[in-house]
Amino acid sequence: MDVRGVTLKVGVSATTTEPGLTGGHLDGIGVYSRALLRELPREGVTVDARSFGPAAQLTVGRPMPRSFPLATMRDLVLPGALPGAREHLDVDLFHATDYRIVRMDRPIVATLHDALPIAHPEWCNPRLRGLKNWLQARAARKADHVIAHTRFTIAELVQCFGVDERRISVVPCGVDEEWLDAPDAAQVGATLAQHGLRPGYFLTVGTLQPRKNIGALLQAYLGLPASVRAQRQLVIVGAAGARSEELVARIKAAQQNGENVVWLSRLTSSEALRHVYAGAGVFVFPTLYEGFGIPVVEAFASGVPVVASNATSVPEVSGGAAIEVDPMSSAAIGAAMLELARDEALRDRCIAAGKARAAGLTWRDTARKTAAVYEAVLKN
User: Fold this and answer.
1) Cα-flanking dihedrals φ and ψ of residue 282, to 5°?
2) Are residues 87 and 104 in contact, defined by beta-carbon separation less than 8 angstroms?
3) Nearest alpha-carbon partner for 7 in 37, 47, 34, 38
4) Example GO biological process term (predicted)?
5) What pLDDT does residue 45 have?
6) pLDDT band at 119 (very low <50, low <70, confident <90, very high)
7) What DSSP element (H or E) covers 263?
C-alpha cells in the first residue's frame, strides 16, 4: 500500500502468536493476529511484528521497547505530553491486535474483539479481574481507531469501553482461502486415524470455558438415541480454559462410562485442525457469547453443515447458512444435531450455503479491509 507517496510500515502485535508464550495453542485472537501477519504484506503493507515478552522466547516478532507491565505503569504515572512518556517504534502506525494497548508516539489502531470481561465478568477468570477490566477500558480509549469484527460488537464497545462509535470500523474475521478446497483425502484419513476418529462425527472447536457452553452440547449428545451415539462420536477440540474444571470432569466421566466422546486438548497444528473439520459430519457451536466465532466460518469452508447458537454475533456471522438454535436449550441443540445427521437434503442445502458464506469471508479480504482502515487513519 502507498500512503503519502511512501510504502506503509505498520507495527503489528504478535504476542498471541508466539509459541513460547502460548504453549503452541492459538486462541481466536492468535489465529486472527497470525493471519494479519501473513496476509498484510500481500496488500503492500510492510509489517514489523512486535511482541510483549522476553526476547529469548520470541520467534515471530521482535520485543516491544518495554514489557507490558512496565509500559502500563508508565501510562499510569507519567502524563502523555512528557518527553519519553510514549513508546516509540519506527513505524507509521501501530496495530494492537489484542488488548495490550499502551501510549505510543504513533497512531494506534486497536482491534477489540469483544467486551466479555466487562459485559460478563462471571464467565472470566476472577484473578485480578477488576483491575484488568479497568486497564482494558482505559487502554481502549488510547486508540485512535478501533476495529470490531461484527456490528453486534459495536454497541458493547461503546457501552463497556466508552469508545466513540465514530472511531469504530467493522472488519470481519475469515478463513484461509485454501480451506475452500477439500484437503488430500489420504492425509485426512491419516490424521483421523492418529486421533482415533471415525468420519461423520459431531464436532465442536473452542477453548473450554463457560461461555462456549460445551456442557450443554455434551448433555445434548448424551440425550441422542443410543444408535446415533454408537455411530457418531462427539469430538471436542480445545484446551481447558478458566473455570472449566467441572466440564472436564463431565467429559472424563462420559468417557469412563463408555460414551463415544473424544477430547483433543492439544491439537495445535492448523493443518491437523483442517483435517479434523474435513472428517466431521456435523459441526456444533452452542456458544453463549462471541465477538465473531471463527470456527463457524472454518466449518462452512470445510463443507460441514453447522448447528449454531442464535445468540450475540453468531447469526450475523452465519448469515442464515446454519441451523440456529437457542443455546440455553440442550433439547433444541440435540434436535438440530439429529436433523442434520439424518436429513440429507437439509445437509446439502446447509453445506452449499455455508460454502458460499465462507467464500466471502477470507483472511485475504480481512487484510485488505484492515489496510484500508490504516490508510483512512493516516489521512485524517
Assistant:
1) -145, 135
2) yes
3) 47
4) lipopolysaccharide biosynthetic process
5) 97
6) confident
7) strand 261-264
> 298 vs 51, 114, 285, 322, 371, CA distance in Å?
27, 20, 12, 13, 23
Containing 48, the helix (H) or strand (E) segment is strand 46-51
Sign of CA dihedral 302, 307, 312, 318: positive
| DSSP letter for each residue of 80-117 | TTSTT-SB--SSSEEEE-SS----BSS-EEEE----HH
* Cell, residue 179: 480451506
Q: For 263-316, what is each residue's pLDDT tens digit?
A: 999 998 999 999 999 999 999 999 999 999 999 999 999 999 999 999 999 999
Q: Which domains does the chain carry?
A: 2-174+363-379 (3.40.50.2000), 177-359 (3.40.50.2000)
**180 near 355, Cβ under 8 Å?**
yes
211-242 pLDDT tens trace = 999 999 999 999 999 999 999 999 999 999 98
CB under 8 A, 24+ apart: contacts of 159-163 = 159/115, 160/115, 160/118, 160/119, 161/112, 161/115, 161/118, 161/136, 161/137, 162/137, 163/112
